[in-house]
Specification:
Layout: E1 7-8, E2 17-19, E3 22-24, E4 26-28, H1 47-63, E5 71-73, H2 79-92, E6 96-99, H3 102-106, H4 109-122, E7 128-131, H5 139-145, E8 149-151, H6 153-160, E9 163-165, E10 170-172, H7 184-207, H8 211-219, H9 223-235, H10 237-243
Parallel strand pairs: 4-8, 5-6, 6-7, 7-8
Antiparallel strand pairs: 1-2, 2-3, 9-10
Helix pairs in contact: 1-2, 2-4, 4-9, 6-7, 7-8, 8-9
Length: 247
């Protein structure tokens, strides 16, 4: 059986932990993961479709547990289905999870907060969460809420859209020709370099107990970002007080 990653000393968001001996949050590359097959769907779908996709995802995850170390949490916009999916996947034997529909969640701040906070509350302490398609400006607050890692695939995704990701803003190079003759591969490399910088930035702020400062600074970069922080503070203060560095 493939050795699972293990979380150590990561009791909540805003604390340095480890996955397989590496600090979290960290970047996860597809070639280092064995992701269980899953049945995906759009975020805003009828409940019957979401229920079917969760059922199929659990079936596929069980069939491939001996060769895979990461499972995908499906459930679309339905929080109860997401939690059910998480718990069943943990029962099967997984402790690493990718949250599906990451790009859609960034545009739905209330759903984003409710999902991550509740998944963290319901999960085993050994479980860890990987976010897909994260914009770089969102990475500090996602870490603050408890996300342990980010898929590198997002840098490729945004490069195909001709979007430059920076720590504070996403630039559509069709509208903002910062680099006029850049190739898709060169743009992907710039995006991954900027993602690596943001990870180092987050680690430095965690070490200095100033992650909250970074979160507040980045909250002004997009309306969705500031809405996420406001909702988090208004609805999840007990969670923040228990698990998060408030500096």
């Amino acid at each position: 059986m493939i050795k699972k990653f293990e979380i150590k000393s990561h009791d909540g968001p805003g604390r340095i932990g480890k996955t397989d001996g590496k600090l979290t949050p960290r970047i996860f590359y597809k070639d280092e993961l064995n992701i269980a097959p899953n049945e995906g769907s759009a975020y805003n779908v009828d409940r019957e479709i979401a229920e079917f996709n969760v059922k199929e995802t659990l079936k596929l995850a069980k069939e491939n547990v001996d060769t895979c170390d990461i499972a995908v949490i499906q459930g679309s916009k339905y929080l109860d289905l997401r939690i059910k999916c998480l718990k069943k996947l943990e029962e099967i034997g997984y402790n690493g999870f990718i949250i599906a529909n990451g790009d859609a969640l960034l545009t739905n701040p209330r759903d984003l907060v409710e999902l991550i906070v509740n998944l963290k509350k319901e999960a085993k302490k050994s479980s860890y969460f990987i976010y897909s398609f994260a914009e770089l400006s969102f990475m500090p607050i996602l870490t603050y809420m408890g996300i342990d890692g980010f898929l590198s695939d997002s840098t490729n995704y945004y490069s195909h859209l001709n979007v430059l990701q920076t720590p504070t803003k996403s630039y559509d190079l069709n509208s903002y020709p910062i680099y006029e003759d850049i190739t898709q591969e060169e743009l992907e490399n710039k995006n991954i370099e900027n993602m690596e910088f943001v990870i180092k930035e987050i680690h430095a702020h965690m070490k200095n107990k100033s992650l909250r400062n970074l979160v507040e600074e980045r909250s002004g970069t997009t309306p969705q970002n500031i809405s996420t922080l406001k909702i988090l503070d208004r609805t999840c203060m007990d969670y923040l007080l228990e698990f998060t560095q408030l500096f």
